[in-house]
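Researcher: We plan to redesign the surface later, but first we want a full-length starting point. Tokens attached.
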């Protein structure tokens, strides 16, 4: 095909004014949590822990479906943490528009075992966590921490 010939939808590019098939079946737009206060608020919601990921779900005030991802330094160095975040973002893009809870904030916390976990297994775990969250079946609350956190000096 020479450069002077017009390309059609079957040839690679769509002609101007054409509507993409993807746009015709658009899924709800996911918004990203960016403020620390949103992450802290989500922590007071429903918590569902699975092998590779912890899901926090909390209703929001008509802000639509939002998500946030966090991976702590305990997981590994920056390369490992970024890989984990990429995997979680891929799961979110695939699963949340269809199976997410409308009108809720979703926070995914990467766990250390999720770094090397099979992607299909992580997908199944996230689907199970969303089903449990939809049914209101969260895990019991965690016990409060006792003593100083790592990296902090003890109070005097």
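Model: Full-length starting sequence:
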């Amino acid at each position: 095909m020479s450069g002077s010939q017009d390309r059609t939808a079957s040839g690679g590019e769509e002609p101007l004014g054409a509507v993409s098939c993807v746009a015709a079946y658009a899924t709800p737009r996911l918004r990203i949590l960016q403020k620390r206060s949103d992450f802290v608020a989500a922590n007071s919601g429903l918590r569902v822990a699975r092998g590779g990921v912890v899901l926090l779900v909390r209703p929001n005030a008509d802000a639509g479906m939002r998500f946030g991802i966090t991976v702590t330094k305990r997981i590994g160095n920056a390369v490992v943490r970024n890989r984990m975040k990429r995997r979680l973002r891929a799961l979110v893009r695939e699963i949340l528009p269809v199976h997410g809870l409308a009108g809720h904030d979703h926070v995914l916390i990467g766990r250390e075992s999720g770094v090397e976990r099979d992607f299909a297994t992580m997908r199944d775990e996230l689907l199970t966590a969303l089903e449990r969250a939809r049914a209101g079946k969260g895990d019991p609350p965690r016990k409060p921490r006792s003593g100083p956190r790592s990296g902090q000096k003890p109070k005097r």
